[in-house]
Amino acid sequence: MIETLKVPGRKGKLYEQGYIRTMFWKRQTDDTFTQNGITYTISNGANNDTYACRGAICNLWTHCAPDTIGELDPDTYATWRKELVNILKDLEKKYHAHVKKIWPEMNAVHMACMKPLCNLMDSNFNFYNFHQLMKKHKVLPDFRHMALEEKYIEHFTKICEILTKYGRLTGFFDIRQMLTILKTENWREIPALFFYLNPLQKALEMVEMTLLKMHKLGVLRIEYIIEKNVELENNIIHMVEMDNIAQWLAGDQLKRDQLCFLYNCHKIVDRCALKDYYLNLDGKSNNKRILEDTIPRLTVFKSMLLVRDIDNKKESDKIKEAEKYARKEALGLLPEPEVEEEEVDDKKKKKAAPASKKKKVIEPTPEELEEIRLKAAFELELKTYGRTWIWEGYYNDTEHHQNWLDGSERLRHINPQVIEDIEDWILLDGFMEQSDIRKWPDDVEPKIKKYQAETRERAKMDIEEEEKEFVEECKVEDQKRKFAEPYRPNNKIWNFVEEKDPTPHVLRHTSNPTKAYEDDKESRVDALLDIIRNVAMNLKNHESENWKRLNKFT
Potential cystine with 273: which of 137, 299, 341, 448 (Cβ 3.0-4.6 Å)? Predict the structure, then answer.
């Protein structure tokens, strides 16, 4: 416009956005400006200059307003044009004076305010590019990844702190822990973890894409007041919300084990005839008993089985190790004990010591060494056998620890088919108090058959070409199950096992584990069921809010 109207006195052809941006500044009353908790001093000259420059630009906007231009006619145009030239001349004069004298000071303030955001944009750009190279199977040094990650965490944390103090971010954040949880091995293949970590991963990627877009646009296209970058702030708020949920459910290995274990217990209920009552999609069923009684008892029962299996595996490994040692000893293959070397005199040690001075090494105390040893032993056991005590923190360890041990010990002396009956007995209890179950457990049988038929119909959809074979396999499976039904411990038939292609177990409406040991039921099955019931009550009540929340998320 200045060139077209040939404004007299123009000194340059280029008018940079970076210079014009610093001409807009709110006038400060005390020559100071505070941003992100840092106070910047604005000189009186800069304060007056930016106010005057902003006024000159506003005069131009007002003079060129659509309403004003729309009312022009041949008689008024000449006067309007003359005034426009004078406004541009004044703006031209103020622009060059601003660039020469005031811009360095104001630009320094702008860049200082934007430095935390610029740092994050740069570290995000570098970290993103490094990950793209890793996806291409490039062999890259670990130290480089660690260095980039440290900078990324540092700069990301700083932005979150600013948004918490001056913006709308309210949730707790820990960027390092967030990145750590996303490194959990195989989380994409574990449904319970995938359901909560995938939204977190997507939210983090959304923040990264926003930062990459801002990096591409450059500093002139973003807000120097960080919390006014609304898209970035909204994405970070969403990411922190997803992270808070993920950290509560899967923040460490114990939490992940608990979530996955409870998920599998809920899955058992969801994959049987209790499904419709459990989900209560129509709102007509009563799933309170299932959630408050069946799920806790099933969880305790499965946990005791886990304790039993791990203890059995440990005992088996000890026996194998002892047998292996005995065989080596019989063959004379044991290594000879190491002979301790004689200690060298203090004088010889001093002579042999190097002359160079080294910093004194602080050796760990015996307590610290013992702590390190126990931690290493626990991690090795966890890796070898899995976690024995899944529900740490959810039960009263003082009162009920022995009950867990007693329950797992009793399970060692119960027939495998009776163990199936115990699980069925716990599940069948979930049908009680349902409006359409008037005679328990007889009215349960049609529900089981209906669910099995629906499950098979859904399975047919995936194997249309082999439908005839599938139907025949189902018939054979039903015949085998019907044949094996009388040969169970409740009919005094013990250890009848299908050695080849065992029939998958299906919930039995006639299951009653107490019938198998009628001569000893009070001290064997009934006592075990009482232990399970008592421990389940403590499990759901000891940390009731956490238990309810965990089940809700599951």
Answer: 448
Which of 113, 137, 152 marks a domain boundary? 113
**Mean pLDDT calculated for residue range 359-387:** 83
Is 55 inside a domain boundary?
yes
Q: What gap in Å lies between CA 527 and CA 302, rounded to an integer?
A: 17
Instruction: Dig out the tokens for 100 from the structure.
Output: 């020469």
pLDDT at 72: 84
The pLDDT of residue 13 is above 70 = no
Residues 23 and 106 in one domain: yes
Question: Nearest-CA neighbor of 118 among 159, 90, 72?
Answer: 159
Amino acid at 48: N
* 453-469 per-position pLDDT tens digit: 887 777 777 666 556 67
Opening angle at CA 553, ends 164 and 422, nearest 5: 155
**Which string of DSSP letters, residue by residue, matches 329-360?**
HHHT-SPPPPPPPPPPPHHHHHHHS-SS--PP
Q: What is the 3-state secondary structure (H, E, C) of 358-394?
A: CCCCCCCCHHHHHHHHHHHHHHHHHHHHCCCCCCCCC
Confidence of residue 11 (pLDDT cuts 50, 70, 90): low
Q: Could you read off the pLDDT of 81-93 as tens digits, one per residue?
A: 888 888 888 888 8
CA dist., res. 200 & res. 189, Å (int): 16
SS3 519: coil
217 lies in some domain: yes
The crossing angle, in degrees rounded to 10, of helices 253-270 and 295-331 is: 120
Domain containing 59 equals 17-113
DSSP H helices, 136-220, are 142-166, 175-181, 191-217
